[in-house]
Amino acid sequence: MTQHLLGVAHVGRSTLLLSILVALAATASPRDPLPLEHAPSASKKTKVIAGVEAVENCNDSGSGSLRDALAGAIDGSTIDFSHLVCSEITLTSGPLLVRQRALALIGPGSARLTLSGSGTQQVLSHTGIGTLAISDVAIANGLDRDASVFGGCIYSNGHLSLVRATVHDCIASGSDEAHGGGAFARRGIDATRSAIYANSALATASPPFFPNGDGGGLSTSALLELTESYVGRNASNVCGGFAANYGLLMRDTTVEGNHADATGAFCVIAGVADTAPVDIESSAIIDNDAGYLGGADFYGGSPGAATMRLVNSTVSGNLSHVITGSTFRTGVYSGIYVDHGILEIANSTIAFNSSVVAGAGVVAVQAEVRLESSIIANNTVTNNPDQSYDIDGGGGTITGASNLVMYSFLPLPPDTLMVDPLLLPLADNGGATKTHALAPTSPAINGGSNPLSLSWDQRGAGYRRTVGATDIGAFESQQGGQPVHRGHSKHARPQDVTP
Question: Does the global pTM surpass 0.85?
Answer without folding.
Answer: yes
